[in-house]
Amino acid sequence: MATVNQQLYRPILTAVGSDCRRHVTTRFLPVPRRNVTTRLRPILSLEVGKEVASAPSTVNMEELVGFLYEDLPHLFDDQGIDKTAYDERVKFRDPITKHDTISGYLFNIAFLKNIFTPQFQLHWAKQTGPYEITTRWTMVMKFIPLPWKPELVFTGLSIMEVNPETNKFCSHLDLWDSIKNNDYFSLEGLVDVFKQLRIYKTPDLETPKYQILKRTANYEVRNYEPFIVVETIGDKLSGSSGFNNVAGYIFGKNSTMEKIPMTTPVFTQTTDTQLSSDVSVQIVIPSGKDLSSLPMPNEEKVNLKKLEGGFAAAVKFSGKPTEDVVQAKENELRSSLSKDGLRAKKGCMLARYNDPGRTWNFIMRNEVIIWLEDFSLD
């Protein structure tokens, strides 16, 4: 209890609203001295300058985490997300989009579904604050309106706030791994979108299966499934020596004269730190086949081999993949991985997706790939 100029002052509690919570502050108004003891007795326990304790919340955060694991995989399918789990005035933000209602949020989902045919994968969800859940995800989209149907990849975090009064989500903030400025409206985010609209010609052939775990401004991290290759010795990463030998195998030069469907890309790989020796040329065998069922190569220098897959970092580029270009891309990628604390294995792979005799250089799709010792999405 404080006295100033012979007047008694009492604390007055004021609720200050926010999007999802209420905070309590304290101010003071004069109280007449008459009947002071009787009128102040109910508030004598309040301590000046301290917040009043709020009622215990009944929010079951563990249950909401489990709900997101079940609900978010339906983000872009016909079932869709459960809109009853969100406040009507839910706030959605990503670097280039914002909505302030559940109807706007659902409109954005429908727009992406119809224009981009997105594929969404939830990696994990966990509680990161008293009323906060964070998720990590990958979204891969094809922009259908453009003739070459470019693939756009976004990975990142979603920070979702829960309203303790309604037990519903009241805020959804997306952060992209590929940019630094994630505030709305981010020019960096817009540029990131447009960069991915460029033309890359990828043949409509089977490729090794992989999952994109993270895409940064400089590379993407993939998790490859095991796959089988037919390989032989090459001369250099950008060379073509040995290609006719492995191509001959899939065109029928094998023990049963079986013709095997063509795949993409053609790999040249080395485990040499200088990238100048121990080079192999590889063509991927279609999935669904195993080593025991494949015909044997007719040539001794051609072998079948199973690669166990695993984590790898890849950088995409166009143009003619000369030896100098490939080595420069490998140096840049290895430097980026080291800066980000990722442990890279020796050597690298060059992936060439196109027939150089039938494809313009500026739309060729090439990749330099480096295998990683390990990777975690913590």
From TrEMBL:
It comes from Arabidopsis thaliana. Belongs to the HEBP family. InterPro entries: DUF2358, Reg_factor_effector_dom_sf, SOUL_heme-bd. It holds the Pfam family SOUL. One of its GO terms (molecular function) is heme binding. This is SOUL heme-binding family protein. It comes from the Eukaryota. GO terms for biological process: response to oxidative stress. One of its GO terms (cellular component) is chloroplast envelope. PANTHER family: HEME-BINDING PROTEIN-RELATED, SOUL HEME-BINDING FAMILY PROTEIN. The gene is HBP5.
